[in-house]
Structures
1.
Amino acid sequence: MRILLVTGKGGVGKTTVAAATAAHAASRGLRTIVVSTDPAHSLSDAFDAPISDSVTVLGPRLFAQQLDARLRFEQAWSEIREYFVQVLGWAGADSIEAEELAVIPGLDEVFALADLKAHATNPDYDLIVVDCAPTAETIRLLSLPDVMSWYMDKAFGPSRRIAKISRPVISRISKLPIASDNFFSAIERFYSRIDGVREVLTDGSNCSARLVVNAERMVVAEARRTFTYLSLFGYHVDAVVANKLLPESVSDEFFASWRQSQSTQLEQIETAFSPLPILHAELARSEVIGLESLGEFGSSLYGALDPASRLADIQPMHLESAGEKTVLSVHLPFSERAEIELARVDQELLVAVGPHRRSVALPDSLRGSEVASARLIDGRLHLEFTRVGDNR
Ligand SMILES: Nc1ncnc2c1ncn2[C@@H]1O[C@H](COP(=O)(O)OP(=O)(O)O)[C@@H](O)[C@H]1O
Ligand SMILES: [Mg+2]
């Protein structure tokens, strides 16, 4: 079973690339499902066919589903919500406010993960292609399994027992509504649905993320940050898709400076994502719509490559934290004996080792940190960061 996460900034062509990858993979014989977690569902627009919240058949070996996270949220959280509404009411919110406040932002997306987990263990599929929401939401979604397990351990581990013991006491003192056992069993049921999702998604042999970009400054900047955060959470990015490139045949003077800036940005893409393969897709004459066009788009995008395979098996960037120390390791092949030069501009780290240059968008968690040491080990540069300036 393979899972491909297709992500990128809004409008770059995520849905198109996800749909095209799925159509192409199905035509090569893989039983493929393409699933959209973006609330702005456009899979059905791309395929020009109705696609619902349940699995829809699009063609031989090709299935699609537009997850309605909202709906699932409402179903599974009705019991839990009741409790929140009671608590909020107790805290003085009127009933309409309480209803509104009980909707925890982002929590509905967890259900998308639960469905992915269900598909991932379904023997009827060889490949799951996920058309993700724009990057910010996707990063939050992909970090959720971590956050959730932390929350479950902290909030519902030992303290669950405490809550039970202290229930009569609290009720007497404050009249704070106390969660019923229904609440806890609903939480547990819910949690068991996403437990293990992280392991599936961060196992590089199961799951790859593909970043779709356009050769435009702002898009590339965002993609680089996404790349960093995906690496931070342990996800494996295995390719970058540079989409909507101006075709050679466009010679109109009007596009001259566009062409110039696209080639500059393509170079940026190479420096920022090397050694990942960069797949190129030209701007088509019109929108890429329908199974046939998508299949052709996918076929020309991947060429001789197997769309479902792991397109890069090295981790270009890896971040690991231990206490106050964070070690960032960057793949820099053929650089054993060269001198390392580092330059940092705000949250951007420029690394030059001999003729090889890499630029890395540092995560916010390293904002107050400085590079304490740099070492080359087996073609990887290990940078150790330590926190500075905390005791102002
Ligand atoms: N290579 C391309 N050539 C022409 N149109 C494209 C190409 N890639 C995407 N599009 C069009 O651009 C628009 C946005 O693409 P879409 O895949 O929906 O982006 P996203 O999912 O990232 O928001 C759609 O109208 C789509 O048909
Ligand atoms: Mg989309």
2.
Amino acid sequence: MISTKLTTLFNIEMPIIMAPMFLVSDSNMVKAAMKSKIIGTFPTLNYRKEGELDSILKELNSFKNEIEDLGTYGVNLITQKSNPLYKKHLNICIKNKVPFYITSLGNPKEVIEKAHKYGAKVFCDVTNLKHAQKVFSLGADGIIAVGQGAGGHAGPNPLHILIPSLKQKFKDFPIIAAGGISTGNGLHSVLVLGADGASVGTRFIASHEAPVSQEYKDAVVNAKSEDIVMTERISGTPSTIINTSYAKKIGYKQSWFEKLLSKNKKTKKYFKMLIQLKGMKKLEKSVVPGNYKNLWIAGKSVEFINDILSIKKITQNFKNELEESIKSNRF
Ligand SMILES: Cc1cc2nc3c(=O)[nH]c(=O)nc-3n(C[C@H](O)[C@H](O)[C@H](O)COP(=O)(O)O)c2cc1C
């Protein structure tokens, strides 16, 4: 129905990437996304136990080979120095010939070089023109422009500025919009701005397949955009969360001492690792049922999420709403 650089590059039906979500996206969600003929992705950090990532990738590769007419899958690598599993995970992904990579937070050079050796594609998360220029010159195959209101590490710029400004500069380069898109209307709007597709996270938390607690899914359905706040208490880098009573209790800022340790050259790397580890533990507890210390990552698109649906139905709704929006021809 709709053809963009994203749909042609990956031979998919809808220009949608189911975005990588820490502690949320797993292989079942990815398979459901592939069956819905979109791209399903997950952060490699969701599989931290020895041997786990390798077996998941083998499982996804055989799923892809056995069934015809599927979408595809990809992994997200946090290329930051403070990710202790980066090198190990990259090598496992390369060995298993992962077809698609999304890099975030650090320098993607090594991923691009290694992935290109066997024809895989690498898209890089960026939040501004400067970073986009950098990944473009390193040979990335596309960029994911993360704007305001996105779930996780949201960018500072609204998509209505970010997408057209990137488009002006990188005319024939695939640009994917991320942040606040949970309806076909929203998808239509970023296509009009010049994007080749959308990377959608928060909408897929409220799915039957998401392996998180019912409380977390219900919180996404019940929250409104003003319930989404930024906190530094998870990874040091500001991240969007639902403003639960626990989030309010622990506050949103790092203390002066934490700030000092995260800026000092000698302590920076190790302190960040420690903060991330502590943040990860808090998040891990939050996604299981019955926990009251709730730190739930979600973006402002919760405003339009009113139901928990299957991934197939979510994709179908995007398709129907996009068609409607294009047909309505209001302007
Ligand atoms: C629960 C959650 C976890 C996330 N974890 C990651 C992650 O591990 N790595 C990453 O690059 N982005 C992560 N993100 C950001 C998403 O990949 C994507 O950019 C974002 O969800 C898009 O905005 P939206 O949530 O408004 O659709 C996360 C987002 C959410 C909601």
